[in-house]
Amino acid sequence: MPHRLSKSRYTAGIQCHKLLWWKVHEPNAVELQPGKVLQDRFDQGAQVGALARDRFPGGVLVDLPHRAVDQRVKLTRKLIDDGTPAIFEASFLAANTFVAVDVLTPQDDGYHLTEVKSSTSQKEEHLPDAAVQVHVLQQSGLRITGVDVMHLSKDCHFPDLSNLFERTDVTEAVQPLLGKVGWEIDAQLQMLEGPLPDVAIGLHCHEPYECPFMARCWPKDRDHIMNLSGVGPKKGCDFLLTGVHRIGDLPAQQKLNITQKRQIRAMRENCLIVEPGLKQALEAFHGRIGFLDFETIQRAVPVWPGMGPWEQAPAQFSYHELQDDGSYAHDEFLAEGPKDCRPALVRHMLEATKHADTIATYSHFERTKIRALQKAVPELQPELEALEHKLIDLLPVVRENVYHPDFLGSFSLKYILHPLVPELTYDDLVIVDGLVASVEIAWLLFVAGK
Ligand code: SF4
Hints:
By secondary structure, this protein is α/β, with parallel strands linked by helices. Helices cover 40% and strands 18% of the residues. The strands form 3 sheets. Strands 1, 2, 3, 4, 5, 6 and 7 form a 7-stranded mixed β-sheet that branches. The protein has a 5-stranded mixed β-sheet with strand order 11-10-9-12-13, with helices on both faces.
Protein backbone atom coordinates (compact mmCIF):
# COMPACT_ATOMS: atom_id res chain seq x y z
CA MET A 1 0.00 0.00 0.00
CA PRO A 2 1.42 3.41 -0.92
CA HIS A 3 2.45 5.63 1.95
CA ARG A 4 0.20 8.42 3.13
CA LEU A 5 1.26 11.82 4.42
CA SER A 6 -0.23 13.89 7.20
CA LYS A 7 0.36 17.43 8.49
CA SER A 8 3.06 16.26 10.89
CA ARG A 9 4.70 13.95 8.35
CA TYR A 10 4.71 16.68 5.71
CA THR A 11 6.33 19.21 8.04
CA ALA A 12 8.88 16.60 9.16
CA GLY A 13 9.68 16.03 5.48
CA ILE A 14 10.07 19.77 4.94
CA GLN A 15 12.71 19.72 7.68
CA CYS A 16 14.51 16.61 6.38
CA HIS A 17 13.57 13.69 4.12
CA LYS A 18 15.69 11.31 6.18
CA LEU A 19 13.79 12.29 9.33
CA LEU A 20 10.49 11.63 7.55
CA TRP A 21 11.75 8.28 6.22
CA TRP A 22 12.62 7.12 9.73
CA LYS A 23 9.32 8.40 11.11
CA VAL A 24 7.39 6.39 8.53
CA HIS A 25 9.54 3.25 8.37
CA GLU A 26 10.50 3.07 12.05
CA PRO A 27 7.49 4.48 13.90
CA ASN A 28 8.47 2.53 17.01
CA ALA A 29 12.04 3.85 17.06
CA VAL A 30 13.10 4.65 20.60
CA GLU A 31 13.95 8.21 19.49
CA LEU A 32 10.31 8.79 18.55
CA GLN A 33 8.77 7.71 21.85
CA PRO A 34 7.76 10.87 23.73
CA GLY A 35 9.48 11.33 27.07
CA LYS A 36 7.79 13.00 30.02
CA VAL A 37 8.58 16.51 28.81
CA LEU A 38 7.32 15.99 25.27
CA GLN A 39 4.23 14.14 26.49
CA ASP A 40 3.49 17.06 28.80
CA ARG A 41 3.80 19.44 25.83
CA PHE A 42 1.31 17.26 23.91
CA ASP A 43 -1.09 17.22 26.86
CA GLN A 44 -0.87 20.97 27.32
CA GLY A 45 -1.34 21.45 23.56
CA ALA A 46 -4.52 19.34 23.78
CA GLN A 47 -5.75 21.51 26.66
CA VAL A 48 -5.09 24.66 24.62
CA GLY A 49 -6.91 23.11 21.64
CA ALA A 50 -9.97 22.35 23.77
CA LEU A 51 -10.04 25.91 25.17
CA ALA A 52 -9.69 27.34 21.66
CA ARG A 53 -12.77 25.41 20.59
CA ASP A 54 -14.79 27.17 23.32
CA ARG A 55 -14.22 30.40 21.35
CA PHE A 56 -16.37 29.10 18.46
CA PRO A 57 -19.99 28.83 19.62
CA GLY A 58 -21.98 26.08 17.93
CA GLY A 59 -18.87 24.32 16.68
CA VAL A 60 -18.86 20.53 16.29
CA LEU A 61 -15.86 18.24 16.77
CA VAL A 62 -15.18 15.43 14.31
CA ASP A 63 -14.90 13.09 17.24
CA LEU A 64 -13.75 9.87 15.60
CA PRO A 65 -10.52 7.87 15.95
CA HIS A 66 -7.61 9.41 14.06
CA ARG A 67 -7.19 6.25 11.97
CA ALA A 68 -10.85 6.21 10.85
CA VAL A 69 -9.95 8.41 7.90
CA ASP A 70 -12.88 7.59 5.61
CA GLN A 71 -15.48 8.08 8.36
CA ARG A 72 -13.85 11.34 9.41
CA VAL A 73 -13.90 12.71 5.87
CA LYS A 74 -17.53 11.60 5.44
CA LEU A 75 -18.64 13.21 8.72
CA THR A 76 -16.83 16.44 7.79
CA ARG A 77 -18.73 16.57 4.48
CA LYS A 78 -22.00 16.08 6.32
CA LEU A 79 -21.19 18.86 8.81
CA ILE A 80 -20.34 21.18 5.90
CA ASP A 81 -23.60 20.30 4.15
CA ASP A 82 -25.51 20.90 7.39
CA GLY A 83 -24.09 24.45 7.59
CA THR A 84 -22.26 23.83 10.90
CA PRO A 85 -20.85 27.22 12.03
CA ALA A 86 -17.44 25.76 12.98
CA ILE A 87 -15.99 22.29 12.44
CA PHE A 88 -13.18 21.16 14.72
CA GLU A 89 -10.68 18.64 13.34
CA ALA A 90 -12.35 18.97 9.92
CA SER A 91 -10.84 16.07 7.98
CA PHE A 92 -9.82 15.87 4.33
CA LEU A 93 -7.86 13.45 2.18
CA ALA A 94 -6.38 14.43 -1.17
CA ALA A 95 -3.14 13.72 -3.01
CA ASN A 96 -2.54 10.86 -0.56
CA THR A 97 -2.31 13.42 2.23
CA PHE A 98 -4.64 13.52 5.23
CA VAL A 99 -5.20 16.71 7.19
CA ALA A 100 -7.44 17.52 10.15
CA VAL A 101 -8.01 21.28 10.32
CA ASP A 102 -8.20 22.63 13.87
CA VAL A 103 -11.12 24.95 13.05
CA LEU A 104 -12.91 25.31 9.71
CA THR A 105 -15.52 28.07 9.53
CA PRO A 106 -17.78 28.64 6.52
CA GLN A 107 -17.82 32.16 5.04
CA ASP A 108 -20.13 33.71 2.43
CA ASP A 109 -17.72 32.91 -0.37
CA GLY A 110 -15.70 29.96 0.93
CA TYR A 111 -14.05 28.70 4.11
CA HIS A 112 -11.71 30.08 6.73
CA LEU A 113 -9.03 27.86 8.21
CA THR A 114 -7.67 28.33 11.73
CA GLU A 115 -4.60 26.54 13.01
CA VAL A 116 -4.35 26.50 16.82
CA LYS A 117 -0.89 26.65 18.39
CA SER A 118 0.12 26.69 22.03
CA SER A 119 3.06 29.05 21.39
CA THR A 120 2.85 32.71 22.43
CA SER A 121 3.48 34.00 18.91
CA GLN A 122 3.02 33.02 15.30
CA LYS A 123 6.23 31.43 14.05
CA GLU A 124 7.74 30.82 10.64
CA GLU A 125 7.39 27.04 11.04
CA HIS A 126 3.60 27.37 11.29
CA LEU A 127 3.41 28.39 7.63
CA PRO A 128 4.22 25.05 5.89
CA ASP A 129 1.75 23.44 8.30
CA ALA A 130 -0.98 25.87 7.19
CA ALA A 131 0.07 25.63 3.52
CA VAL A 132 -0.33 21.85 3.30
CA GLN A 133 -3.81 22.16 4.81
CA VAL A 134 -4.84 24.84 2.32
CA HIS A 135 -3.49 22.68 -0.52
CA VAL A 136 -5.42 19.56 0.55
CA LEU A 137 -8.63 21.55 1.10
CA GLN A 138 -8.30 23.18 -2.32
CA GLN A 139 -7.69 19.76 -3.86
CA SER A 140 -10.87 18.66 -2.09
CA GLY A 141 -12.83 21.40 -3.86
CA LEU A 142 -13.04 24.03 -1.10
CA ARG A 143 -12.37 27.71 -1.69
CA ILE A 144 -10.18 29.02 1.12
CA THR A 145 -10.78 32.69 1.83
CA GLY A 146 -8.47 33.15 4.81
CA VAL A 147 -6.01 31.44 7.11
CA ASP A 148 -4.95 32.41 10.60
CA VAL A 149 -2.91 31.05 13.46
CA MET A 150 -4.65 31.22 16.82
CA HIS A 151 -1.95 31.27 19.49
CA LEU A 152 -1.62 32.19 23.15
CA SER A 153 -1.35 35.87 24.04
CA LYS A 154 1.54 37.30 26.05
CA ASP A 155 -0.91 39.96 27.32
CA CYS A 156 -3.03 37.40 29.13
CA HIS A 157 -2.54 37.14 32.89
CA PHE A 158 -4.29 34.88 35.35
CA PRO A 159 -7.05 35.03 36.54
CA ASP A 160 -8.42 36.92 33.51
CA LEU A 161 -8.25 34.36 30.70
CA SER A 162 -10.66 36.25 28.42
CA ASN A 163 -7.71 37.28 26.22
CA LEU A 164 -5.92 33.91 26.37
CA PHE A 165 -5.83 33.75 22.57
CA GLU A 166 -4.61 36.05 19.84
CA ARG A 167 -5.07 35.48 16.11
CA THR A 168 -2.47 36.27 13.47
CA ASP A 169 -3.63 36.36 9.86
CA VAL A 170 -1.27 34.35 7.63
CA THR A 171 -3.36 34.29 4.45
CA GLU A 172 -0.77 36.33 2.51
CA ALA A 173 2.25 34.65 4.12
CA VAL A 174 1.05 31.20 3.05
CA GLN A 175 0.53 32.15 -0.61
CA PRO A 176 4.19 31.86 -1.77
CA LEU A 177 4.38 28.35 -0.29
CA LEU A 178 1.29 27.01 -2.03
CA GLY A 179 2.93 26.59 -5.44
CA LYS A 180 5.48 24.20 -3.94
CA VAL A 181 3.23 22.01 -1.78
CA GLY A 182 2.06 19.67 -4.56
CA TRP A 183 5.60 19.20 -5.78
CA GLU A 184 6.91 18.57 -2.26
CA ILE A 185 4.15 16.03 -1.52
CA ASP A 186 5.09 14.10 -4.68
CA ALA A 187 8.78 14.24 -3.75
CA GLN A 188 8.12 12.99 -0.21
CA LEU A 189 5.85 10.15 -1.35
CA GLN A 190 8.35 9.06 -3.98
CA MET A 191 11.22 9.23 -1.47
CA LEU A 192 9.28 7.04 0.97
CA GLU A 193 9.04 4.28 -1.65
CA GLY A 194 12.84 4.07 -1.82
CA PRO A 195 15.66 3.30 0.61
CA LEU A 196 16.79 5.62 3.41
CA PRO A 197 17.84 8.82 1.63
CA ASP A 198 21.31 10.22 2.07
CA VAL A 199 20.98 13.66 3.67
CA ALA A 200 23.98 15.63 4.93
CA ILE A 201 23.84 17.00 8.47
CA GLY A 202 23.37 20.75 8.79
CA LEU A 203 21.34 23.53 10.35
CA HIS A 204 18.11 21.74 9.39
CA CYS A 205 18.96 19.17 12.12
CA HIS A 206 18.39 21.92 14.70
CA GLU A 207 15.68 24.05 13.11
CA PRO A 208 12.81 24.50 13.35
CA TYR A 209 12.93 21.60 15.81
CA GLU A 210 15.81 19.63 17.28
CA CYS A 211 15.77 16.36 15.30
CA PRO A 212 15.28 13.27 17.48
CA PHE A 213 17.79 11.34 15.35
CA MET A 214 20.82 13.54 16.03
CA ALA A 215 22.63 10.67 17.77
CA ARG A 216 22.31 8.54 14.60
CA CYS A 217 23.58 11.17 12.18
CA TRP A 218 26.03 13.40 14.04
CA PRO A 219 29.62 12.36 14.85
CA LYS A 220 30.34 11.87 18.54
CA ASP A 221 34.02 12.90 18.41
CA ARG A 222 35.17 14.96 21.35
CA ASP A 223 36.86 17.43 19.01
CA HIS A 224 33.88 17.88 16.68
CA ILE A 225 33.47 21.56 15.82
CA MET A 226 29.99 21.60 17.42
CA ASN A 227 31.77 20.96 20.73
CA LEU A 228 33.64 24.27 20.52
CA SER A 229 32.53 26.30 23.53
CA GLY A 230 29.93 28.94 22.73
CA VAL A 231 29.39 27.76 19.16
CA GLY A 232 25.67 27.49 18.52
CA PRO A 233 23.99 25.53 15.72
CA LYS A 234 24.19 28.44 13.26
CA LYS A 235 27.89 29.22 13.70
CA GLY A 236 28.77 25.52 13.99
CA CYS A 237 27.01 24.70 10.71
CA ASP A 238 28.73 27.68 9.07
CA PHE A 239 32.03 26.05 10.08
CA LEU A 240 30.90 22.73 8.57
CA LEU A 241 30.07 24.46 5.29
CA THR A 242 33.60 25.86 5.12
CA GLY A 243 35.09 22.39 5.67
CA VAL A 244 35.92 22.87 9.36
CA HIS A 245 34.60 19.67 10.95
CA ARG A 246 36.94 19.41 13.92
CA ILE A 247 38.25 21.90 16.42
CA GLY A 248 41.72 21.00 15.12
CA ASP A 249 40.67 22.13 11.61
CA LEU A 250 40.23 25.75 12.74
CA PRO A 251 42.55 28.00 10.73
CA ALA A 252 45.32 29.77 12.67
CA GLN A 253 43.79 33.18 11.94
CA GLN A 254 40.38 32.16 13.37
CA LYS A 255 39.28 34.62 16.05
CA LEU A 256 38.61 32.79 19.31
CA ASN A 257 37.47 34.05 22.68
CA ILE A 258 39.44 33.36 25.84
CA THR A 259 37.24 30.41 26.87
CA GLN A 260 37.68 28.77 23.47
CA LYS A 261 41.45 29.28 23.66
CA ARG A 262 41.46 27.67 27.12
CA GLN A 263 39.40 24.77 25.75
CA ILE A 264 41.85 24.18 22.90
CA ARG A 265 44.77 24.29 25.34
CA ALA A 266 43.04 21.79 27.67
CA MET A 267 42.32 19.48 24.73
CA ARG A 268 45.89 19.72 23.45
CA GLU A 269 47.38 19.04 26.88
CA ASN A 270 44.54 16.62 27.75
CA CYS A 271 44.24 17.91 31.29
CA LEU A 272 42.20 20.11 33.60
CA ILE A 273 43.14 23.78 33.37
CA VAL A 274 42.59 26.02 36.38
CA GLU A 275 43.45 29.67 35.96
CA PRO A 276 45.27 31.51 38.78
CA GLY A 277 42.33 33.97 38.84
CA LEU A 278 40.06 31.29 40.34
CA LYS A 279 41.34 31.96 43.87
CA GLN A 280 40.38 35.62 43.66
CA ALA A 281 37.03 34.84 42.02
CA LEU A 282 36.15 32.51 44.88
CA GLU A 283 36.91 35.17 47.48
CA ALA A 284 33.49 36.64 46.66
CA PHE A 285 32.00 33.54 48.32
CA HIS A 286 32.65 34.70 51.87
CA GLY A 287 31.16 34.22 55.32
CA ARG A 288 28.40 31.72 55.77
CA ILE A 289 27.76 30.17 52.35
CA GLY A 290 24.47 28.71 51.13
CA PHE A 291 23.53 26.98 47.88
CA LEU A 292 20.09 27.58 46.39
CA ASP A 293 18.32 25.76 43.59
CA PHE A 294 14.77 26.29 42.28
CA GLU A 295 12.48 24.03 40.33
CA THR A 296 9.60 25.70 38.56
CA ILE A 297 6.29 24.90 36.98
CA GLN A 298 5.54 26.13 33.48
CA ARG A 299 1.99 25.89 32.17
CA ALA A 300 0.59 26.89 28.79
CA VAL A 301 -2.60 28.08 30.47
CA PRO A 302 -1.56 30.24 33.44
CA VAL A 303 -2.57 28.96 36.86
CA TRP A 304 -1.51 31.50 39.50
CA PRO A 305 -2.26 35.26 39.86
CA GLY A 306 -0.31 37.50 37.51
CA MET A 307 1.19 34.66 35.49
CA GLY A 308 1.10 34.61 31.69
CA PRO A 309 1.17 31.61 29.31
CA TRP A 310 4.27 29.43 29.75
CA GLU A 311 5.62 31.71 32.49
CA GLN A 312 7.80 29.82 34.94
CA ALA A 313 7.09 30.09 38.65
CA PRO A 314 9.09 28.47 41.46
CA ALA A 315 7.23 25.62 43.14
CA GLN A 316 10.14 23.98 44.91
CA PHE A 317 13.50 24.97 46.34
CA SER A 318 16.40 23.09 47.80
CA TYR A 319 18.86 24.89 50.06
CA HIS A 320 22.13 23.71 51.57
CA GLU A 321 24.22 25.74 54.00
CA LEU A 322 27.84 25.03 54.83
CA GLN A 323 28.33 24.59 58.58
CA ASP A 324 31.38 25.43 60.69
CA ASP A 325 32.24 21.72 60.98
CA GLY A 326 32.23 21.28 57.19
CA SER A 327 28.86 19.51 57.07
CA TYR A 328 25.81 20.84 55.21
CA ALA A 329 22.44 21.72 56.70
CA HIS A 330 19.59 21.15 54.28
CA ASP A 331 16.16 22.73 53.93
CA GLU A 332 13.59 22.45 51.19
CA PHE A 333 10.09 23.35 50.13
CA LEU A 334 7.69 21.65 47.76
CA ALA A 335 4.29 23.06 46.84
CA GLU A 336 1.26 21.00 47.77
CA GLY A 337 -1.90 21.11 45.71
CA PRO A 338 -2.88 23.50 42.94
CA LYS A 339 -3.16 26.74 44.93
CA ASP A 340 -0.54 29.49 44.56
CA CYS A 341 2.43 28.35 46.65
CA ARG A 342 4.64 31.39 46.11
CA PRO A 343 3.86 33.30 49.37
CA ALA A 344 4.54 30.15 51.44
CA LEU A 345 7.64 29.32 49.41
CA VAL A 346 9.02 32.84 49.88
CA ARG A 347 8.44 32.83 53.65
CA HIS A 348 10.09 29.40 53.97
CA MET A 349 13.03 30.44 51.79
CA LEU A 350 13.62 33.69 53.69
CA GLU A 351 13.67 31.78 56.97
CA ALA A 352 16.00 29.08 55.59
CA THR A 353 18.50 31.58 54.18
CA LYS A 354 18.43 34.26 56.89
CA HIS A 355 21.87 33.39 58.35
CA ALA A 356 23.69 33.14 55.01
CA ASP A 357 26.12 35.86 53.93
CA THR A 358 26.58 34.55 50.41
CA ILE A 359 24.32 32.26 48.40
CA ALA A 360 25.71 30.41 45.42
CA THR A 361 23.60 29.53 42.41
CA TYR A 362 24.62 27.96 39.13
CA SER A 363 23.28 30.29 36.38
CA HIS A 364 21.26 33.47 36.81
CA PHE A 365 18.00 31.49 36.84
CA GLU A 366 17.43 31.81 40.60
CA ARG A 367 18.10 35.56 40.45
CA THR A 368 15.49 36.12 37.72
CA LYS A 369 12.97 34.01 39.60
CA ILE A 370 13.58 35.90 42.87
CA ARG A 371 12.97 39.13 40.95
CA ALA A 372 9.69 37.71 39.63
CA LEU A 373 8.76 36.66 43.17
CA GLN A 374 9.17 40.28 44.29
CA LYS A 375 6.20 41.11 42.05
CA ALA A 376 4.21 38.00 42.94
CA VAL A 377 4.65 38.46 46.71
CA PRO A 378 4.94 42.27 47.04
CA GLU A 379 4.49 42.26 50.83
CA LEU A 380 7.92 40.56 51.11
CA GLN A 381 9.61 42.56 48.35
CA PRO A 382 12.27 44.24 50.58
CA GLU A 383 13.30 40.91 52.11
CA LEU A 384 13.49 39.29 48.67
CA GLU A 385 15.58 42.16 47.37
CA ALA A 386 17.98 41.68 50.29
CA LEU A 387 18.16 37.97 49.47
CA GLU A 388 18.87 38.81 45.84
CA HIS A 389 21.90 40.85 46.95
CA LYS A 390 23.37 37.76 48.62
CA LEU A 391 23.32 35.71 45.39
CA ILE A 392 26.49 34.95 43.48
CA ASP A 393 26.45 33.02 40.24
CA LEU A 394 29.09 30.28 40.17
CA LEU A 395 28.71 29.55 36.45
CA PRO A 396 30.77 32.51 35.13
CA VAL A 397 33.41 31.73 37.76
CA VAL A 398 33.79 28.24 36.29
CA ARG A 399 33.53 29.42 32.69
CA GLU A 400 36.22 32.07 33.15
CA ASN A 401 38.66 29.96 35.14
CA VAL A 402 38.25 26.23 34.63
CA TYR A 403 38.20 23.84 31.68
CA HIS A 404 38.40 20.07 31.40
CA PRO A 405 38.44 18.34 27.98
CA ASP A 406 35.40 16.28 29.03
CA PHE A 407 33.28 19.44 29.35
CA LEU A 408 32.76 19.03 25.57
CA GLY A 409 32.42 22.79 25.21
CA SER A 410 29.57 23.06 27.72
CA PHE A 411 29.43 24.54 31.21
CA SER A 412 26.11 23.01 32.19
CA LEU A 413 26.15 20.87 35.34
CA LYS A 414 25.42 17.83 33.20
CA TYR A 415 28.83 18.19 31.53
CA ILE A 416 31.02 19.64 34.27
CA LEU A 417 29.91 17.58 37.27
CA HIS A 418 31.67 14.29 36.55
CA PRO A 419 34.96 15.74 35.21
CA LEU A 420 35.27 17.98 38.29
CA VAL A 421 33.84 15.56 40.87
CA PRO A 422 34.63 12.09 39.46
CA GLU A 423 32.84 10.28 42.30
CA LEU A 424 29.56 11.89 41.16
CA THR A 425 27.79 11.55 37.83
CA TYR A 426 24.82 13.55 36.67
CA ASP A 427 22.76 10.34 36.69
CA ASP A 428 23.32 10.12 40.47
CA LEU A 429 21.06 13.11 40.98
CA VAL A 430 17.49 12.11 41.79
CA ILE A 431 15.90 14.10 38.98
CA VAL A 432 18.51 14.75 36.34
CA ASP A 433 16.84 17.37 34.24
CA GLY A 434 15.15 20.63 35.24
CA LEU A 435 12.52 20.18 32.55
CA VAL A 436 11.63 16.71 33.81
CA ALA A 437 11.49 18.05 37.37
CA SER A 438 9.17 20.82 36.24
CA VAL A 439 6.82 18.34 34.57
CA GLU A 440 6.89 15.99 37.58
CA ILE A 441 6.01 18.81 39.99
CA ALA A 442 3.26 20.18 37.74
CA TRP A 443 1.81 16.69 37.49
CA LEU A 444 1.83 16.36 41.29
CA LEU A 445 0.15 19.74 41.76
CA PHE A 446 -2.38 19.87 38.97
CA VAL A 447 -3.09 16.33 37.81
CA ALA A 448 -2.43 13.74 40.52
CA GLY A 449 -4.86 15.24 43.03
CA LYS A 450 -7.78 15.49 40.59
S1 SF4 B 1 19.88 14.46 12.31
FE1 SF4 B 1 19.74 15.84 10.56
S2 SF4 B 1 20.21 14.61 8.77
FE2 SF4 B 1 19.76 13.19 10.44
S3 SF4 B 1 17.57 12.75 10.20
FE3 SF4 B 1 17.76 14.44 11.61
S4 SF4 B 1 17.55 16.28 10.41
FE4 SF4 B 1 18.00 14.60 9.00
